[in-house]
Amino acid sequence: MSTETSVPFPRVSGLGPADSALLETLLKEAPIGFAFFDTEARFQRVNRTLSTIYGRGEADCEGHTPSDVLAPAEAAAHEAAIAAVLSGEAVVTGDHQFVAACQSDSTTHPRWAMSWFPTHGVDGAVNGVAHIAVDLSDRHKVEVALRRSEERYRSLLRASNQIIWAAGPDGHINEDCAEWRSVTGQSREEYLGRGWLDAVHPDDRERVERAWDDAVADSTVFDATFRVRTRSGDFRHYQSRAVPIMRDGELVEWVGANTDVTTQREADEMRHRLTQQLGEAALRTVRLQKATSDLAEALTVNEVVRAMAEIGQSAVGVDRTAVALLDRERLRLRVLNPEGVPDIAGVRTRESGLDYPNAMTMAVRERKPFIAGSPLEMRALLDDHPDVVTFLEHTDERAWVALPLLSAGLPIGALRFAFNRPRDISEEEKVFLEALAGQCALALERATLFEREHRTAESLQKSLLPEALPDVRGIRMRAFYRSGTQHVQVGGDWYDAFPLPDGRVAGVLGDVMGKGIKAATGMSRVRNALRALAFSMPEPADVLTGLDRMFEATEREEQITTLAYFVLEPETGHGYLGNAGHLPPLLVAPDAAPRLVETEPATPLGMTSPREHHKFFVPPGNTVVLYSDGLVENRKRAVASGLEELVSVASQAPAEVVGDPQKMLEYLVEGMLAGYEQDDDVTLLAVHVPATEAEPDN
Questions:
Q1: Burial 99-112 (b: 16+ CB within 10 A, else e)
Q2: Three-state secondary structure along 438-494?
Q3: pTM for the structure as a whole
Q4: How far apart are CA 586 and CA 601, in angstroms?
Q5: What are the transmembrane regions (predicted)?
Q6: If exposure means fewest CB atoms within 10 Å of the residue's CB, which of 123, 302, 353, 418 is most exposed?
Q7: Whose CA is closest to 627, among 590, 597, 659?
C-alpha cells in the first residue's frame, strides 16, 4: 500500500435538491464502486457496483464490518486501510481481485483499484472513510493512471502550499482559481483578467506587472516574488513562476504556480537580522577594545581628550566630542576641550554650574545617560528652558548623547557626543556608549593621577639638584635637565658643581639606575658623600675610592650607580677626570672636530677595583659636556650608535653655539632627540673655557 493526499469528499448537505438527487443516482448507477464507513469501520452506504464486486447485496453490507462481508484477506486489507485513514493518512490505495461466490473462474475477473479517503464533518473533523473501487481493465487503466497522477499532483501542491493558475496567451486570466481567491478574498470577477494584480502590494505592483508584460511579450518564463494582501488585510510573500505552453510553435496558454514563501522569507530575514546584529556586536566589541587600547596609551588629560575625540569620530560617528571634569567643591563642570562646548549662542562655554540646563549637567545630576535624538526631544527633556531654546536656534547640532563619568559610583565628569543630524540610539549602542564612558572615566582618573604625581616627581627631582651653578672666574658652566615624559617617578640623574678650597672647581654628573624614591635617596647619598670627600681629598681617584667604601656600607649591590667626576683649574683649563662606568665626556672645539674623552674602562660604584684618574684639559675656546644615557640611548637607538650620532651632531654646531655653553646644550638635546620619543631623563653639564678671560657669568 501507499499513501496519497486527497480533497475531502463533497458534503451532500451543501447541495440543492436536484443536485442531491443527481448525486444519489451517480452513487447507485456509476460503474465505479462507492462505500462509506463510520469510525467503527462499519458500512454506512454501499452502491450497487461495489456490492456486486463483493458478491453481496447492498443490504448485506450496510451496518456490518468488512470481516462480516469479505474473505479474511480482503477484510484485513480493508480494515487496515480504514485504520490508516482514521489515524491520519490522507489516502490509502491498493489493487485487489475479488471473486464472487457465484463465480468460480478467478482468472476472468479484473483487478480493481481500491482507494480510501477521510470524510469530514461540518466542523472539519474526520467522521468516517470513503471507499472507491475502480475497474483496472484495459478500458479503465488510462483513466486510473491519470486519476492517480492527479491525486499525487494535488497532494504535492497541498504539501508545498502552491496555487496553480492558468492564463490565456495574451496574459489575461480566463479560468477561475478558488485557491487564490480563498487567500485574497477576491470574487471571481475581481480575479479574472488582470484583477489578480489588485491583490499585489502597491509597492510591488509596478515591478510585477512590468515583469509579467515582458514575459508575455517575449514568451519567456515569468518568475517574481511579491507580497499579496490576504482577506484579513495582512500581507504574505509569494513566489510566482509561470511557463508558456507551446503547441505547433504557437503560444496557447500560460500555466503557473504561486508558492507561499512567507515562512522562508521571515526565516531569511530573521537570519539576516541575527547575522547583522552579531556582526554589529562583534564590531562594537572590536571598537571598544581599540578604544580601550588607545585610552590606555593616553597618559595626560589632554591626551585622553584627544583620544576620545578620535574615538568618537571613528567608532561612534559623532561630529563633536567633549569631556568635562567635575569640581565637587564648587559643583561646576569644567570642559577640557580647548574649544569648549557651544551651549550659549556665540560663546564656547568652558565651565558651567550643575544647575545650568544642558546635556552634561543632566547626565551628572541624574547619574545616567542623557539622550536626545532631535531638537524637539532636547526641548522636551529640558522643559523648554529659554537658554536651551536659544542654544538650539544657533547650533548646527541635531542629536546629543551625554554620559556621566563615574568612579566608585560617584561622578567625576561627563562625556558628550553631538551629531549634526537627528539620530536614534538603539539599546545596543547605548550599552556600547556606557562601556566607552566607563573606559574614559578610568583613563581620565589615571591621567589626573599621572599629572599630579608627575608634577610632584619633577618638583622632588629639581629639589635634589643644585639651585644654581657657582660663578667661577675663568670658566662658564651651564646645566640642562628634562624629566622623561613616560615616567611619573623621580629619576636617578643628577649633576653638581662647586669650588674647592684650593681654588679649583669640581664638577660631576651621575646616574643612579632605576626610578622612584629608592633611586632619589641613593642619588642624594652619593651626592652628599661626594661633596664631603671632595673637600678633604678632592682628587678623582681618592673621591671614587671613598665612594666605593661608602657604597659597600650603605647601598645594595643592585643599586648600580655611574658617574664622571672632574677637578679643573679655571685659569688654565687643566685638571683630572675620574670615570666610574659612565659615558665619556664630549669635547667640542671651535677649530677642530669634536671628540669623546676616552679613558680606561672602569666599573660603577661599589664594584671594588683600583681607582685611577687621568689628566684632563679643556683648551681655551673649548667646551666639555658631561651627559646621561638618556641623551644617546632609547628604544630605537643603542648606546654605540648614539655616541657616534652625538659626535656627528656636535660637528655641525655653528660657531656661535660652540662658544656658548647654554646654546650648546640646547643644540645637542634638540639634535639628539629629533625623531625619537624621550623615554628617560636627559641631564647635561657643560664647562666652557673662554678664549679670553671673561667676567663671571651671571
A1: eeeeeeeeeeeeeb
A2: HHHHHHHHHHHHHHHHHHHHHHHHHHCCCCCCCCCCCCEEEEEEECCCCCCCCEEEE
A3: 0.48
A4: 16
A5: none
A6: 123
A7: 597
